[in-house]
Automatic annotation (TrEMBL):
It comes from the Bacteria. The chain crosses the membrane at residues 12-38. It comes from Loktanella atrilutea. PANTHER family: CBB3-TYPE CYTOCHROME C OXIDASE SUBUNIT FIXP (PTHR33751), CYTOCHROME C4 (PTHR33751:SF9). The keyword Transmembrane helix applies. It holds the Pfam family Cytochrom_C. This is Cytochrome c553. One of its GO terms (molecular function) is metal ion binding. Residues 79-165, 213-300, 312-405, 418-498, 513-604 form the Cytochrome c domain. Keywords: Electron transport, Heme, Iron, Membrane, Metal-binding, Transmembrane, Transmembrane helix, Transport.
């Protein structure tokens, strides 16, 4: 018997019936919701079906997301466990309990209830635990990690969770007991004069129902109780060296008070990413932040804990730290991190005397593709620098810095002694065509006056041209033919003697009024466009402290203008991680670029 397909009219009738039922069902559902008949009470437990669906969905979702996660090699490190247990005690224990300890009655009154982790952690893989901590769980009280970067620190919590089922109550209590170190001051919580903004998580409406501000209330009221230093000592140790967590937390005897104050403020407002530190710092008043910074800066410098893993070669790390990697346009680490005076207005932390584990994890975090910067500084070069290093080089640097004594000035490798005859031969054969024998460029201003720069800057730029990190086809062709010794000789030939004045432009470049406008931008920036003052980086003190920053005073005006035009174009968009200048030049008008160039050109070259 042949089965006849339903006619089009029958199909339309069936579809119409189901559509009508759907509309009726929607109306009934909306009516039930509108009348408040749907219970949202958290008092009765979920029924078996709801509980099964929720847990199955939860486990399948986290298992899927964990497929793209790589577990670090040092996950079973006791140091990671030591750091993870402190964050767990600060935050997680309020809901999830502890070893041989029950859960809070408040947590057990939630729906869904947070699990007792010591009982269920074995049901999840390392990758799943990481995903749950990083992303949280929607429609439950499980929050996402309170930072959108710096996820390496999550692994320390995972490390503790792995150790949790075998940990005794006595071990847990001993590890989480906190006491004020000897002679440490109590830091009273005084009512703040005003609240500061908090940039954490994705803000969503209704905005008037939330208060993104600091200081705020914490999970444990160490701030209002004045027990701030006791809380800090849990990770950083009684003497501040980081020994309590075997170097996972930084050595606080190394940085200055000014740097720590800046860092704590940025942790507090969320601009410096750290789920661990933002949780702590967001509870502190500004007076407590200053008190903490002054206290730890006053402690004697202490060597960091030794790294038992010994993943790096300190000899190889010393080469990068003192000489950099010129072919990758990477300057020596010490150029910025050890010998820079805070008087130059740059709060750059020293890193000699930090533990190998801490430095390695920080460099690895900087190298992650999601890293976009930290803090409120105009330029954040560490993502580009760290990703230019391979994991072994980062470990080598960490091993080297951990062996250095905290404090004091550190060595910086200098250029090889100049071969003057080789330099003059290269100048005659190559450089003078554009830059003249003296290196000052021609009256057209098309080519830069090399003598206003330092030898260190010129050497780094020649390597950048050769490697392609700085685009200029003509200079690339020249640099490709130069050896490292040739570059060093040329850099010193032009960069070591006193600067010479640039040739007078063929035509009048700017009026006095335009120069004055440029001076205003150079000194004060353009606040409406969030453009900083040029002199905050290119002024006498910063360029003296950091020889890798270009000196613009006395440079040819047309050259500065052309560079600003090029830096502001889309072809320079990928330079953001190397230099802040693309974003700055992009937002300036043609006239603003011209006027700034005119002002710098009108200044006397800086002494070297």
């Amino acid at each position: 018997m042949q089965i006849k397909a339903p006619s089009w009219h029958v199909i339309k009738w069936i579809v119409g019936v189901f559509a009508g039922l759907a509309v009726i069902g929607g109306i009934i559902g909306a009516l039930i919701v509108s009348l408040g008949l749907v219970t949202i009470s958290a008092r009765p437990p979920h029924n078996a079906l709801t509980r099964t669906i929720l847990h199955y969905t939860f486990k399948r979702s986290t298992a899927n997301a964990g497929g793209s996660v790589d577990v670090p090699a040092d996950l079973d490190s006791p140091a990671r466990v030591a750091l993870g247990i402190q964050h767990y005690a600060n935050v997680c224990s309020s809901c999830h309990g502890g070893p041989e300890l029950g859960q809070s009655p408040v947590a057990l009154s939630m729906r869904p209830r947070p699990q007792h982790l010591a009982s269920v952690v074995g049901e999840f893989s390392d990758e799943q635990l990481f995903v749950i901590l990083r992303d949280g769980v929607r429609f439950s009280a499980m929050p996402a990690w309170p930072a959108s970067q710096n996820f390496d620190e999550i692994w320390s919590v995972v490390a503790f969770l792995r150790a949790l089922p075998d940990m005794t109550n006595a071990e847990y209590v001993a590890a989480t007991q906190r006491a004020l170190p000897e002679d440490a001051p109590e830091l009273a919580f005084d009512a703040p004069d005003q609240l500061s903004g908090l940039d954490v998580g994705i803000k969503a409406p209704p905005m008037d129902e939330y208060l993104y501000a600091t200081p705020g209330t914490g999970w444990h009221e160490y701030a209002s109780n004045g027990d701030v230093i006791a809380t800090c000592a849990a990770c950083h140790g009684a003497k501040g060296s980081g020994d309590a967590t075997a170097g996972q937390a930084p050595n606080l005897t190394v940085p200055s008070a000014a740097y720590m104050t800046k860092a704590l403020r940025e942790y507090a407002n969320g601009t410096r990413p750290s789920g661990i530190m933002t949780t702590v710092a967001a509870s502190l008043t500004d007076a407590q932040i200053k008190g903490l910074s002054e206290y730890y800066a006053s402690l004697p410098d202490i060597a960091p804990p030794r790294d038992q893993a010994a993943l790096g070669d300190p000899v190889a790390g010393e080469i990068i730290a003192t000489a950099g990697l010129p072919d990758q346009a990477l300057p020596a680490c010490y150029t910025c991190h050890q010998n820079v005076s805070e008087a130059a207005g740059m709060l750059i932390p020293p890193i000699a005397g930090q533990s190998a584990a801490y430095v390695r994890h920080r460099l690895d975090a900087f190298a992650e593709p999601y890293w976009t910067g930290a803090g409120t500084s105009a330029w954040q070069p560490m993502h580009w620098i760290a990703k230019s290093l391979n994991p072994q080089q980062r470990a080598d640097l960490a091993a080297y810095f951990a062996q250095q004594a905290p404090g004091g000035r550190a060595p910086v490798a200098t250029l090889q002694p100049m071969d003057a005859a080789n330099a003059r031969q290269l100048v005659e054969g190559v450089c003078k065509e554009c830059h003249t024998v003296e290196g000052v460029g021609g009256p057209s201003g098309e080519y830069p006056n090399l003598t206003v720069q330092t030898a260190t800057y010129l050497d780094l730029q020649l390597h950048a041209f050769r490697s392609g990190n700085r685009e200029a086809e003509r200079m690339r062709q020249v640099a490709e033919k130069l050896s490292d010794k040739d570059m060093s000789d040329l850099a010193q030939y032009f960069g070591t003697p006193a600067a010479l004045p640039s040739p007078t432009p063929q035509d009048v470049f700017a009026t006095a009024e335009e120069i004055a406008v440029g001076g205003e931008i150079a000194s004060n920036g353009i606040p409406d466009k969030n453009i900083p003052a040029c002199l905050s980086c290119h002024g006498p003190e910063p360029t003296s402290a950091l020889p890798i920053i270009a000196r613009l005073q006395g440079q040819a005006p047309r050259y500065i203008q052309d560079r600003l035009q090029a830096l502001g174009s889309e072809k320079s968009a990928d330079l953001d991680t190397i230099s802040p200048m693309h974003a700055i030049a992009r937002d300036m008008t043609v006239d603003e670029r011209h006027d700034v160039a005119a002002w710098f050109a009108a200044q006397a070259p800086l002494p070297k």
